[in-house]
Amino acid sequence: MSDKTTSPSGTLSRPAAWGTFARERFQIPAVLIFGIAQSASAQYVVSSTLDWLGLAISVAGISVLLVIMRMMDELKDLDKDRIAHPTRPLPRGLISPEEVRSGLRIAIGLLLVASVFIGLLRNPIAGVLLSLSVGYSLLMYREFFAPDLLGARPFSYAVTHQIIIVPIYAFATATALPEAAFTQPVLWFAATGLGASFAWKSAES
Question: Reduced to 3 states, what is the DSSP secondary structure of residue 6?
Fold first, then answer.
């Protein structure tokens, strides 16, 4: 007998609702492709061989961080989405903002715990970079506690919300070669990613 995915009232069960939310808004295949491409590229910038364990750690860390940032954006954009995109999961009531906040707290906690284990069992540089990336994403979520100031300065807003790419790229390198995380090739690699992200955001807007 298969598990029921609906409640007696006909609404989706909470696991099914979260599954629909993830499918519609997290774009998991794209997240994994991005994580794999970024992690593998970061290693090949400084080494001709691939560290598979480092790759797995990097892909997992980056993918979870991207999902966390997606949930943050869903909450930040909720008022706009109620008007412009009422069929998205939160505006249409598939899942509540409080449920997303709870999921966000759990995901952040798990990633911070993972960063501690990475730092202790793998190398401290990778652990610190991952935890810094999580911390910076929280500042982005809070709009650096100056939403009106940033909102009035589009360029400053773009810079503050894209610079997180640098520690993410460094983390991807540090999982395999921590001594290379802040070398010139990696910093140039991060700069190209930063430029590409600026170009994409400019085209999107």
Answer: strand
Domain count, the chain: 1
What are the two backbone dihedrals, phi and then psi, of residue 63, each rounded to the nearest 5 degrees? -65, -45
| DSSP three-state, residue 12 | strand
Under the banding of pLDDT at 50, 70 and 90, the label for residue 159 is confident
| CATH code (residue 29) | 1.10.357
CA distance 159 to 178: 26
* Residue 143 CB partners (closer than 8 Å, separation 6+): 150, 151
204 pLDDT exceeds 60? no
Classify residue 99 as exposed, middle or buried by CB count within 10 Å of its CB (0-12, 13-18, 19+): middle
Residue 74: which domain range?
14-204
Span 10-28, pLDDT tens digits: 467 889 999 999 999 998 9
